[in-house]
Amino acid sequence: MMPERHTMVQLERVSKVYQKSAVPAVQEISLEIPTGEFLVLVGESGCGKTTTLKMINRLVEPSAGRIVVDGQDVMSSNPIELRRAIGYVFQGIGLFPHMTVAENVGIVPRLLRWEPSAIAHRVDELMGMMGLASEEYLQRMPSELSGGQQQRVGVARALAGRPKILLMDEPFGALDPVTRDALQREFQSLQKSIGLTVVMVTHDMTEALLLADRIAVMQQGRLLQIGTPREMLTHPGDAHITTLLETPRRQAASLERVLKPGQL
């Protein structure tokens, strides 16, 4: 019998209402994310998935409900310390343009007051994980990197402080298909190898099916269904989920037709 996993993130009836809006952005969402899980929040633009993600590290503060990260209520945590303990990667990457790659990757350990030798070791270690040779890339500026290289540096920076949780907001959306596929597979392998808890936002159901341990589908601020990719494909619990699955199903069917004998 497998041992019960620790709950790393818990949302209890969490809601968010923005000023001047009559409709809640997020409505009474409850879910538990165990340690080491790769959870993907998926849904159309405006469904509340990014708001939900940002409430975990208090970039957005909930209007109601409770969020617990690693056993501590986020509202009782110092928001700056909370954010330094949670990695964050987003589509715009957000590397500091005036800093070298080494300075970008090492910024959180510096804020955490690590020893310089420990920072240098961690930066070098992460560059290796990201497939970027330290001697070639550490002194480069972000403008000297390709989009895929910048995204790798962004992931390295988010991991530098050894966070237990990584939040990702459309991290691969701006990349070309080949780079995107390669980075997705590399990151998934890395995530499993270090047991990192990941919460990722995407509007791409195919990406969610390929990467997630579990998928949480949102619509109009509500959580419609949560389950494994297999459960979503075999037992979609809502007509909206069936619609979201149409594109990956159509793509899979098209590939199957191409690969049939006589079709090549």
Summarize the structure.
This protein is α/β, with parallel strands linked by helices. Helices cover 41% and strands 23% of the residues. The strands form 2 sheets. Strands 6-7-8-3-9-10 form a 6-stranded mixed β-sheet, with helices on both faces.
Shape: globular
Taken as a percent bin, the fraction of beta residues is: 15-25%
Average pLDDT over all residues = 90
CATH class category label of the largest domain:
Alpha Beta
Strand order of the largest sheet: 6-7-8-3-9-10
Count of individual domains:
2
| Overall radius of gyration | 19 Å
Please identify, by name, the CATH architecture of the largest domain. 3-Layer(aba) Sandwich
DSSP helix fraction: 40-55%
Strand-pairing-aware structural class: alpha/beta
What is the number of helices?
11
| Element-level helix/strand string | EEEHEEHEHHHHHEHEHEEHH
| End-to-end CA span | 47 Å
The tally of beta strands, per DSSP, is: 10
Question: How is the CATH topology of the largest domain named?
Answer: Rossmann fold
Give the oligomer, counting copies of the same chain as homo and different chains as hetero: single chain
Biggest sheet architecture: 6 strands, mixed
The CATH superfamily name of the largest domain is P-loop containing nucleotide triphosphate hydrolases
